[in-house]
Predict the 3D structure of the following.
Amino acid sequence: MRELSYAEAIREALRQEMQRDERVFIIGEDVGVYGGAFGVTLGLIEEFGEERVIDTPISELTIAGAITGAALVGMRPVGEIMFMDFITLASEQLVNQAAKIRFMFGGKEKVPFVLRTPAGSGTGAAAQHSQSLENWFVHIPGLKVVMPSTPYDAKGLLIASIRDDNPVIFVEHKLLYKVKGPVPEEPYTIPLGTAEVKREGRDLTIIATSIMVQRALQAAEQLAEEGIEVEVVDPRTLKPLDKETIIRSVIKTGRVLIVHEACKTGGFGGELAAVIAESEAFDYLDAPIVRLAGRDIPIPYNRTLEYHAVPQVENIVEAARRLAEGRV
Amino acid sequence: MTLSPERKRELLCQMYTIRAFEEKAEELYAMGKVHGTMHLSIGMEASAVGSIAALRPDDLILSTHRGHGHCIAKGADLNKMMAEFMGKETGYCRGRGGSMHIADVESGNLGANGVVAGGIPIAVGVGLGLKMQRRDQIILCFFGDGAANTGAFHESLNMAAIWSLPVVYVCENNQYAMSLSVRKAFAIERISDRAAAYGIPGVTVDGNDVMAVYEAVKKAVDRARAGGGPTLVENVTYRWRGHSKSDVNRYRTREEIEAWKKKCPIKRFRARLIEEGILTEEEADRIRDEAYAAVDAAVAFAEASPEPSLDTIEEGVYA
Ligand SMILES: Cc1ncc(C[n+]2csc(CCOP(=O)(O)OP(=O)(O)O)c2C)c(N)n1
Ligand SMILES: [Mg+2]
């Protein structure tokens, strides 16, 4: 199959949906000729014009408001927040307005939009350009939260998100943009709320999100050489969450390591651990549930400190090995 | 209100130092010696230097992501700045902040900011705190044209105005917020016209003329110090380099950039000082060469400095 980068897969999803449905448009800072800070929307303004690829002033709150309002009157906007850190500025419209309008109106309205935003560290951009804030939005009823880890998933999940009738926070990862993988040319969807077993194994389950899926797969490769067979599960959407696939895997392996980049305290790993502990998988656990996550610090600028602020392949290998060997 | 010849020479020296620092930063970046990103203010030196020249040493500033110039003009130690840029333990932020977060509290620089308009509301709080303590310092807050379109700008200028806070707001209008031209981002000609909406003075000056900037900001500073409240000063200037490390200038023309390069604020001030008989060509060259040498020395200091140690990684989150 043809290979595309994660950024190209996202661009292709945007292009195909804009071709299919004229209600779909893009709005955000520097999404036009600049192509967004990471070049994801490059070329789209040439193809679709300034009316459907809209550059805004630096006004995150009103980007969120604009996609909410346009969705209310029948458009299907795709907004972009240049760095996930700045979604803090947009959060009033997302959390109090977009998420709750349908419910508050007694189910009579819907707010179908996607808000794309890159999260994550590893680019040396320091504390205000490196955060992974997805779990804040997982906490809000009415929002969906999607976090693709591969080009294939990025395209299919984005198309599904655009066609979904709810506000979707679509969290990309800066370090994944250049990662390549097979992507079909025709449009396709991956239903929100379906996890995927990215690698099968019998000894332990790693549940990982976003870039940590790629790192977990590399770790699994290394561990296989030592005879440890790791199963890697990618929830792909944090909300709705495919609990079934997760629980099935944990029942199968009896050991679970949860890996994400966001700070450990208050991160999505806590939710995953609770979901497992509350389920029938609890009886099958042979070891405590282990979480490996970002340290509870802002992301430092210094290259070495930055590297050690979040889980790397070697940390995953080490944690998984301890768990598999019963040293936890 | 005129500055002494000595002060003027100092200002030229600051402008050269900023230029030298940023040319070196760019070079180090290209060599792969620093990672992350940086935002250069090459071509905008008069705005930083002229504005800060109007302050007392104990006055405070809040800076932006494009903050090297502010930092140097406020009196930073180049060694600590360069060490921060290179992520070293000896840097202003112990290598934790980098170019976008340099803060030099001792000199009154309360920090660059990675968030556009991030400093504008903080200036309200600083102004309020200074006023409550009856201190006669003022806070000068820099921000870009792009920042003037945030909600934070509106809320803050209004609050600073209604409480007559000792704040000077300096908008560095360099014509672009990343790729967005001010012509597309504003429905008004002059950003300073917005001052009227808050009932405060607003003034637009040639931001490449260091003395014009100085004079406009000095008026605003005197007013703020006397309890008259905030002023909005707009310095009209231009950034020569791309927005950040990566920028292929898709949103502007080569001719436009070249036209602005002809209005180089440093060349202009240098020529003026020579014309006024304050400097000879040779003296001006010496000032320039010393600035470049000081930056080279800072690089040597930074390169010889240690990296932060890994076991300190969790330090400094809480007081
Ligand atoms: C709240 C926020 N939104 C977006 C960004 C990304 N960004 C960084 S600088 C910049 C442009 C800023 O323009 P301006 O205020 O004119 O300052 P300049 O870069 O021209 O000095 C943008 C959009 C950011 N850092 N913070
Ligand atoms: Mg600007």
The first helix of chain A runs from residue 6 to 20.
